[in-house]
Every structure is written in C-alpha cells, then in structure tokens.
Amino acid sequence: MVVVMSPEATEEDIARVVSRVEGVGGEAFVSRGMSRTIIGLVGDIESFHHLNLRTLGGVADVHRISDPFKLVSRQHHAQRSTVWVGQPGRQVPVGPDSFTLIAGPCAVESPEQTVEAARMAQSAGATILRGGAFKPRTSPYAFQGLGERGLEILASVREATGMPFVTEVVDSRDVELVASHADMLQIGTRHMANFGLLQAVGEAGKPVLLKRGMSATIEEWLMAAEYIAQRGLLDIVLCESGIRTFEPSTRNTLDLSSVPVVQATTHLPIIVDPSHSAGRKDLVVPLASGAIGVGADGIVVDVHPKPELALCDGPQALDGTELRDLAKAVRRLPPVLGRVSAATVTRQG
Questions:
Q1: Cβ-Cβ contacts under 8 Å for 252 (sequence gap 6 or more)
Q2: What is the pLDDT of residues 23-39, one digit of tens each?
Q3: Nearest one of 98, 104, 99 to 122, comparing CA atoms
Q4: CATH of 83-344 among 3.30.565.10, 3.40.50.150, 3.90.550.10, 3.20.20.70
Q5: Of 18, 36, 48, 286, which is most buried with the most CB atoms under 10 A?
Q6: Beta carbons of 327 and 124 less than 8 angstroms apart
Q7: Dihedral sign of CA atoms 65, 67, 69, 72 in order
C-alpha cells in the first residue's frame, strides 16, 4: 500500500501518517521527490484499511499496489515524472516533455581532456556532462580512474561550462564523497544488484542514474530502483545500456523495446546509452536515433577529443564526423515526436 501526500503536506502531516502505521505494527518508508512525497507501507494491509489514512491532513490519496515495485509503479503515479539535475537556477530536466543529451568522456583523464570533451558535448547539444572518476573495469590492470581528483576536475569543468555532471559511484563507502561533488550519482550495470550501494545512494539526497544490469530482467531492474526509492529518493532516471546475449557483433544487445515497456510500467524517466551497448562508434548515431524514435527521454554518449589515446573505451567515443551527425539527429528528431531540447526548459517555482 502507498500513501501519496499532497504538495502542501507538512513534516507534521508525514510524521502523523508514519506514527499511525507504526502503531499497528507496520513499517512506513518515506520517499521524497522534487514535487511530492510518497509513503510506502509494509505490513498487514487489512489493519492499514482501518486507519482511515485518507482522512488525515496532508494525505492526497491511498493506493493498494499489486506491483512488487510499489514506489516506482505507475499504479499510484499515473503521470510520468521529471527529474531535475543540477543546482538551483541551472537545473536540467530529464522527463517526458523534453529530450536530454548527456555526454562526455567515459573516464576523466586530465583537466584539459575533460574540459575539451565537455565543450565538444555542449556543441552537440548536451546539457549534462558525464565523466567517470571511479572506473570499475573487467581487468584489475586496466585504468581504474582518478578517484577524488577526478571529482575535483569534474567540479571545475562544471564551473567553466555551467553543465551539471553525473558520475558513477562503485562503493557504498564512497557515496558521501561522490555526492559532495556530483549533481547526479550513477549506478553502473555491474552494480545494479549491489543492494547496499543502492540503499546508500537512496539516502544521499542526489538524483540517481540507474543502469540496467547486463543480465537483468526489466522487473529486476525496477526492483533495484525500488531499493533506492524505499530509502527516501524518488528522483531516479533509468538507463538502458544493453543486455548480454549470444550475439558477439556488439558488446551487448541494445534492448530498445525496454523503453516503451518501462514507460508503461513506471513513472520514472528512461534514457538509453548507445555507446556502452554497442562498444563501436559507428553504431552510436543509428542506435541513438532509434532510441529517440521509440520515445526515450534522453541518451548518454561518450565523447573524447582524441579517442585513439583514450584510457577507457576509446573505440566507442565520438569526435569529428560522428559527433556532428549526432548533433543533427538530436536537433532534428525529438521535435518530430513533440519534444523540446532540455536546454530550453526552465523550471517553474
């Protein structure tokens, strides 16, 4: 069961609901989004019915949810959500009414490389910078990222370009550090089922970009989002980056069908990562175009000023002709589907 609080609900209203639920032996998990607060109830449903929660101050509605992912389900939240990324005054939307391009280097290597990649991303229409400071790699001998120094570089590039940035956190012990620098925390495909990490980022108070695990079903992916939401955060953006199949032509198989399926199931925004799914730069623009066509709320792509010298995933990083082609697709295709660039949207209120 889920209690949806009205936008005008006070902390006292929320506390009153929690107290009522706990008074009959239930548990109440408070999750706060940008525009509303939702309280997920765990316990005896029948005892909750007798509480008459709808009559309490600040309560907008009460729903009995059949989906296992109660807080992120569309059963209680019919309208799809918009997540705002960045500091007040320069926030960028990710949601159903706009189209958001997130771009930047897969790994932060130096201040010069990062700011040049950010400028390239902006020229293509990007409004959010991506960059890896901590890099979980298949090989322990591969470049693992600059760590805290990488976060400092990203923060300095944010000041230089005005772009909020998203970066991956790979260990629950680093969540506080990463959240103190980043505008958005990324959970990578390898960590989608790291439940302790999911809970930690849910408590950090920053928007989260949650990638689908390479072997995860859509329900498992949404249950991972529920772990984050249950800890108090509803500002979650899902990211489809491909699933592992028998086909060796690409790194993973991009499941574009997940976009409409997810949009019919959850109110959370969903974007697509054509770079990490394909692993090849020649496929990024066609896959990005396909993602726009099926209704994705945005895409995230790798950009590097010198891909041949990149310390991480150079073969999939865009520059030159490919980046210009991406810019054309991002400029021309979303308006056909009734979307505007996230760069033109200003948050009201």
A1: 214, 241, 242, 243, 244, 245, 276, 277, 278, 279
A2: 988 888 888 876 678 88
A3: 104
A4: 3.20.20.70
A5: 48
A6: yes
A7: negative
